[in-house]
Specification:
With 311 residues, this protein is of the alpha/beta class. It has two domains: 264 residues, Rossmann fold (3-Layer(aba) Sandwich), CATH 3.40.50; 31 residues, no CATH class. 34% of the residues lie in helices and 14% in strands. Helix 2 crosses helix 3. The longest helix is centred in the N-terminal third of the chain and has 21 residues. It is globular, with a radius of gyration of 21 Å.
Protein backbone atom coordinates (compact mmCIF):
# COMPACT_ATOMS: atom_id res chain seq x y z
CA UNK A 1 0.00 0.00 0.00
CA UNK A 2 1.49 3.36 -0.99
CA UNK A 3 1.87 6.50 1.12
CA UNK A 4 -0.24 8.46 -1.37
CA UNK A 5 -2.77 10.68 0.42
CA UNK A 6 -6.30 9.40 -0.04
CA UNK A 7 -9.31 11.65 -0.41
CA UNK A 8 -12.10 10.75 1.96
CA UNK A 9 -14.03 9.12 -0.90
CA UNK A 10 -11.06 6.95 -1.92
CA UNK A 11 -10.30 6.19 1.74
CA UNK A 12 -13.85 4.94 2.27
CA UNK A 13 -13.67 2.79 -0.88
CA UNK A 14 -10.23 1.29 -0.25
CA UNK A 15 -10.07 -2.27 1.14
CA UNK A 16 -6.82 -1.32 2.84
CA UNK A 17 -8.54 1.17 5.15
CA UNK A 18 -11.46 -1.06 6.18
CA UNK A 19 -10.15 -1.45 9.73
CA UNK A 20 -9.84 2.31 10.20
CA UNK A 21 -12.82 3.79 12.02
CA UNK A 22 -11.65 7.41 11.55
CA UNK A 23 -10.74 9.06 8.25
CA UNK A 24 -6.93 8.91 8.11
CA UNK A 25 -4.45 10.60 5.77
CA UNK A 26 -0.83 9.47 5.57
CA UNK A 27 1.93 11.85 4.47
CA UNK A 28 5.58 11.01 3.91
CA UNK A 29 6.78 13.73 6.28
CA UNK A 30 5.40 15.80 9.14
CA UNK A 31 6.29 18.93 7.15
CA UNK A 32 4.02 18.04 4.23
CA UNK A 33 1.26 17.00 6.63
CA UNK A 34 1.57 20.24 8.62
CA UNK A 35 1.41 22.29 5.43
CA UNK A 36 -1.82 20.55 4.41
CA UNK A 37 -3.37 21.30 7.81
CA UNK A 38 -2.33 24.96 7.64
CA UNK A 39 -3.83 25.28 4.16
CA UNK A 40 -7.16 23.89 5.38
CA UNK A 41 -7.20 26.34 8.29
CA UNK A 42 -6.29 29.24 6.00
CA UNK A 43 -9.06 28.29 3.57
CA UNK A 44 -11.58 28.32 6.42
CA UNK A 45 -10.38 31.73 7.61
CA UNK A 46 -10.70 33.16 4.11
CA UNK A 47 -14.13 31.59 3.61
CA UNK A 48 -15.37 33.15 6.83
CA UNK A 49 -13.86 36.51 5.81
CA UNK A 50 -15.81 36.41 2.55
CA UNK A 51 -18.98 35.97 4.61
CA UNK A 52 -17.96 38.69 7.09
CA UNK A 53 -18.00 36.12 9.91
CA UNK A 54 -15.67 35.12 12.71
CA UNK A 55 -13.57 32.01 12.26
CA UNK A 56 -13.42 30.19 15.61
CA UNK A 57 -10.37 27.97 16.06
CA UNK A 58 -9.56 25.51 18.82
CA UNK A 59 -5.78 25.38 19.18
CA UNK A 60 -3.33 22.89 20.65
CA UNK A 61 0.18 23.13 22.06
CA UNK A 62 3.15 20.78 22.20
CA UNK A 63 5.57 19.82 19.45
CA UNK A 64 2.97 18.50 16.97
CA UNK A 65 1.39 21.82 15.86
CA UNK A 66 4.60 23.87 15.69
CA UNK A 67 5.05 23.40 11.95
CA UNK A 68 1.37 24.17 11.38
CA UNK A 69 1.77 27.49 13.19
CA UNK A 70 5.00 28.22 11.32
CA UNK A 71 3.20 27.78 8.00
CA UNK A 72 0.28 29.95 9.13
CA UNK A 73 2.76 32.69 10.05
CA UNK A 74 4.35 32.36 6.61
CA UNK A 75 0.95 32.61 4.93
CA UNK A 76 0.28 35.79 6.91
CA UNK A 77 3.62 37.44 6.14
CA UNK A 78 4.10 36.31 2.55
CA UNK A 79 0.57 35.77 1.21
CA UNK A 80 -1.44 38.29 3.18
CA UNK A 81 -3.54 35.90 5.27
CA UNK A 82 -5.25 38.07 7.89
CA UNK A 83 -6.33 36.80 11.32
CA UNK A 84 -8.42 39.84 12.22
CA UNK A 85 -11.62 37.78 12.08
CA UNK A 86 -10.16 34.85 14.03
CA UNK A 87 -11.24 33.90 17.56
CA UNK A 88 -9.08 31.28 19.30
CA UNK A 89 -9.64 28.97 22.25
CA UNK A 90 -6.75 26.91 23.51
CA UNK A 91 -7.32 23.39 24.73
CA UNK A 92 -5.54 23.47 28.03
CA UNK A 93 -3.00 24.84 30.48
CA UNK A 94 -1.03 23.38 33.36
CA UNK A 95 -2.31 24.24 36.84
CA UNK A 96 -0.91 26.12 38.58
CA UNK A 97 1.08 27.97 35.94
CA UNK A 98 2.26 31.56 35.66
CA UNK A 99 1.62 32.88 32.13
CA UNK A 100 5.20 34.17 31.92
CA UNK A 101 6.76 30.85 32.95
CA UNK A 102 8.96 29.05 30.44
CA UNK A 103 6.51 26.11 30.25
CA UNK A 104 3.34 28.23 30.05
CA UNK A 105 1.06 27.59 27.11
CA UNK A 106 0.36 31.31 27.04
CA UNK A 107 4.05 31.88 26.34
CA UNK A 108 4.12 29.02 23.84
CA UNK A 109 1.20 30.36 21.80
CA UNK A 110 2.59 33.89 21.66
CA UNK A 111 6.03 32.70 20.64
CA UNK A 112 4.79 30.20 18.06
CA UNK A 113 1.87 32.13 16.57
CA UNK A 114 0.17 35.13 18.15
CA UNK A 115 3.14 37.52 18.21
CA UNK A 116 3.67 37.04 14.46
CA UNK A 117 0.15 37.61 13.11
CA UNK A 118 -2.52 40.32 13.24
CA UNK A 119 -4.93 38.59 15.61
CA UNK A 120 -6.66 40.93 18.07
CA UNK A 121 -5.52 40.30 21.68
CA UNK A 122 -9.11 40.29 22.92
CA UNK A 123 -9.87 37.38 20.57
CA UNK A 124 -7.35 35.07 22.26
CA UNK A 125 -8.61 32.69 24.95
CA UNK A 126 -6.35 30.39 26.98
CA UNK A 127 -7.23 28.65 30.27
CA UNK A 128 -5.84 30.61 33.23
CA UNK A 129 -3.27 28.81 35.32
CA UNK A 130 -3.16 31.36 38.15
CA UNK A 131 -6.75 31.06 39.35
CA UNK A 132 -7.52 30.22 42.94
CA UNK A 133 -8.92 26.72 43.35
CA UNK A 134 -12.26 28.19 44.37
CA UNK A 135 -12.43 30.14 41.08
CA UNK A 136 -11.61 27.29 38.70
CA UNK A 137 -15.14 25.90 38.49
CA UNK A 138 -16.67 29.26 37.53
CA UNK A 139 -13.90 29.89 35.01
CA UNK A 140 -14.46 26.53 33.32
CA UNK A 141 -18.19 27.21 33.05
CA UNK A 142 -17.55 30.65 31.55
CA UNK A 143 -15.02 29.17 29.08
CA UNK A 144 -17.74 26.91 27.72
CA UNK A 145 -20.16 29.83 27.55
CA UNK A 146 -17.62 31.94 25.66
CA UNK A 147 -17.14 29.23 23.03
CA UNK A 148 -20.91 28.94 22.63
CA UNK A 149 -21.26 32.72 22.38
CA UNK A 150 -19.23 32.67 19.17
CA UNK A 151 -21.26 29.82 17.72
CA UNK A 152 -18.89 26.98 18.59
CA UNK A 153 -15.56 25.90 17.14
CA UNK A 154 -15.22 25.80 13.35
CA UNK A 155 -11.99 23.75 13.50
CA UNK A 156 -10.36 22.05 16.47
CA UNK A 157 -6.78 20.86 16.06
CA UNK A 158 -5.41 18.19 18.38
CA UNK A 159 -2.33 16.20 19.14
CA UNK A 160 -2.41 12.81 20.86
CA UNK A 161 -0.43 11.81 23.94
CA UNK A 162 1.09 8.41 24.57
CA UNK A 163 -1.81 7.69 26.94
CA UNK A 164 -4.25 8.44 24.12
CA UNK A 165 -5.21 11.75 25.67
CA UNK A 166 -6.62 14.65 23.67
CA UNK A 167 -6.18 17.95 25.41
CA UNK A 168 -5.45 16.73 28.92
CA UNK A 169 -8.36 14.27 28.88
CA UNK A 170 -6.52 11.28 30.31
CA UNK A 171 -7.72 7.64 30.29
CA UNK A 172 -10.97 7.38 32.21
CA UNK A 173 -12.33 10.68 30.89
CA UNK A 174 -16.01 10.67 30.00
CA UNK A 175 -17.06 11.28 26.41
CA UNK A 176 -19.45 13.92 27.81
CA UNK A 177 -16.81 15.75 29.90
CA UNK A 178 -16.57 19.52 29.65
CA UNK A 179 -13.88 22.07 30.57
CA UNK A 180 -12.56 21.20 34.03
CA UNK A 181 -9.57 20.72 36.34
CA UNK A 182 -7.98 17.27 35.91
CA UNK A 183 -5.17 15.16 37.32
CA UNK A 184 -2.37 14.33 34.90
CA UNK A 185 -1.36 10.75 34.17
CA UNK A 186 2.12 9.70 35.28
CA UNK A 187 3.09 8.96 31.66
CA UNK A 188 2.03 12.45 30.60
CA UNK A 189 4.10 13.97 33.40
CA UNK A 190 7.05 11.77 32.47
CA UNK A 191 6.83 12.96 28.85
CA UNK A 192 6.84 16.59 30.02
CA UNK A 193 9.77 16.13 32.40
CA UNK A 194 12.42 17.55 30.07
CA UNK A 195 10.46 20.80 29.71
CA UNK A 196 10.35 21.20 33.49
CA UNK A 197 13.92 20.07 34.22
CA UNK A 198 12.71 16.98 36.03
CA UNK A 199 9.48 15.07 36.49
CA UNK A 200 9.22 16.27 40.08
CA UNK A 201 8.68 19.81 38.76
CA UNK A 202 5.80 18.94 36.40
CA UNK A 203 2.41 20.10 37.73
CA UNK A 204 0.08 17.27 38.72
CA UNK A 205 -3.01 19.07 37.44
CA UNK A 206 -4.23 20.99 34.39
CA UNK A 207 -7.30 22.82 33.14
CA UNK A 208 -8.56 21.29 29.92
CA UNK A 209 -11.45 21.42 27.51
CA UNK A 210 -13.43 18.22 27.91
CA UNK A 211 -14.00 15.50 25.36
CA UNK A 212 -17.57 16.73 25.05
CA UNK A 213 -16.33 20.26 24.37
CA UNK A 214 -14.00 18.99 21.64
CA UNK A 215 -16.70 16.81 20.08
CA UNK A 216 -18.94 19.86 19.53
CA UNK A 217 -16.45 21.31 17.02
CA UNK A 218 -17.69 21.18 13.43
CA UNK A 219 -14.33 19.93 12.16
CA UNK A 220 -11.58 18.10 14.08
CA UNK A 221 -8.04 17.55 12.83
CA UNK A 222 -5.82 15.34 14.99
CA UNK A 223 -2.15 15.05 14.08
CA UNK A 224 0.68 12.75 15.12
CA UNK A 225 4.31 12.50 14.09
CA UNK A 226 6.96 9.86 14.76
CA UNK A 227 7.23 6.20 15.71
CA UNK A 228 6.57 6.84 19.40
CA UNK A 229 2.96 7.73 18.54
CA UNK A 230 2.37 4.83 16.12
CA UNK A 231 1.01 2.33 18.64
CA UNK A 232 -1.50 4.60 20.36
CA UNK A 233 -2.56 6.06 16.98
CA UNK A 234 -3.41 2.58 15.68
CA UNK A 235 -5.40 1.82 18.84
CA UNK A 236 -7.39 5.05 18.54
CA UNK A 237 -8.17 4.49 14.86
CA UNK A 238 -8.71 0.73 14.60
CA UNK A 239 -9.87 -0.49 18.03
CA UNK A 240 -13.34 -0.05 19.51
CA UNK A 241 -13.95 3.27 21.31
CA UNK A 242 -12.89 3.13 24.94
CA UNK A 243 -12.24 5.52 27.80
CA UNK A 244 -8.85 3.80 28.04
CA UNK A 245 -7.91 5.69 24.87
CA UNK A 246 -9.85 8.99 24.90
CA UNK A 247 -8.81 9.80 21.32
CA UNK A 248 -10.87 6.79 20.21
CA UNK A 249 -14.02 8.77 21.10
CA UNK A 250 -13.35 10.72 17.90
CA UNK A 251 -14.75 7.72 16.03
CA UNK A 252 -18.17 9.13 16.98
CA UNK A 253 -17.46 12.51 15.37
CA UNK A 254 -18.78 12.92 11.80
CA UNK A 255 -15.99 15.16 10.51
CA UNK A 256 -12.66 14.10 12.04
CA UNK A 257 -9.41 13.30 10.24
CA UNK A 258 -6.22 11.79 11.60
CA UNK A 259 -3.25 13.38 9.80
CA UNK A 260 -0.09 11.29 10.16
CA UNK A 261 3.45 11.14 8.89
CA UNK A 262 4.75 7.79 7.66
CA UNK A 263 6.31 6.89 11.01
CA UNK A 264 3.18 7.62 13.07
CA UNK A 265 1.12 5.53 10.65
CA UNK A 266 3.48 2.55 10.67
CA UNK A 267 1.32 0.44 13.03
CA UNK A 268 -1.86 0.82 10.99
CA UNK A 269 -2.94 -2.43 9.36
CA UNK A 270 -2.62 -0.93 5.87
CA UNK A 271 1.07 -0.33 6.57
CA UNK A 272 1.93 -3.17 8.95
CA UNK A 273 -0.04 -6.13 7.51
CA UNK A 274 -1.53 -4.99 4.18
CA UNK A 275 -1.61 -8.57 2.83
CA UNK A 276 -4.48 -9.32 5.24
CA UNK A 277 -6.61 -6.57 3.68
CA UNK A 278 -6.35 -6.98 -0.07
CA UNK A 279 -4.23 -7.85 -3.07
CA UNK A 280 -0.83 -6.17 -2.92
CA UNK A 281 2.21 -5.83 -5.15
CA UNK A 282 4.70 -8.16 -3.50
CA UNK A 283 8.36 -7.31 -3.17
CA UNK A 284 11.18 -8.97 -1.18
CA UNK A 285 10.76 -6.67 1.81
CA UNK A 286 7.00 -7.27 2.05
CA UNK A 287 7.49 -11.01 1.56
CA UNK A 288 9.97 -11.15 4.43
CA UNK A 289 7.65 -9.20 6.71
CA UNK A 290 4.70 -11.41 5.80
CA UNK A 291 6.60 -14.62 6.50
CA UNK A 292 7.75 -13.32 9.90
CA UNK A 293 4.18 -12.26 10.68
CA UNK A 294 2.85 -15.69 9.68
CA UNK A 295 5.39 -17.49 11.86
CA UNK A 296 4.48 -15.30 14.82
CA UNK A 297 0.75 -15.72 14.19
CA UNK A 298 0.98 -19.53 13.93
CA UNK A 299 3.68 -19.72 16.64
CA UNK A 300 5.70 -21.94 14.30
CA UNK A 301 9.18 -21.79 12.88
CA UNK A 302 9.45 -21.22 9.15
CA UNK A 303 10.55 -24.82 8.43
CA UNK A 304 7.42 -26.09 10.26
CA UNK A 305 5.00 -24.28 7.96
CA UNK A 306 3.45 -26.12 5.01
CA UNK A 307 4.86 -23.80 2.37
CA UNK A 308 2.66 -25.26 -0.33
CA UNK A 309 -0.16 -23.28 1.27
CA UNK A 310 1.76 -20.06 0.67
CA UNK A 311 1.67 -20.42 -3.10
Amino acid sequence: MSNKVLTKEKWEASPFTKKEKIHTQLYETSFSASTAIAVEIADMIREKQSLDEFCVLGLATGSSPKSVYKELVRLHKEEGLSFENVITFNLDEYYPMDPNALQSYVKFMHEQLFDHIDIKPENIHIPEGTLSKTSVGDFCFSYEEEIDKYGGLDIQILGIGRTGHIGFNEPGSSSQSMTRLVNLDSITRMDAASDFFGEENVPIKAITMGVGTIMKARRIIIMAWGETKAGIVAQAIENSPSDNVPASYLQFHPNTSFILDAAAGSELSRRKIPWTLGVIDWNPELTKRAVIWLCETLTKAYFEIDRSRLQ
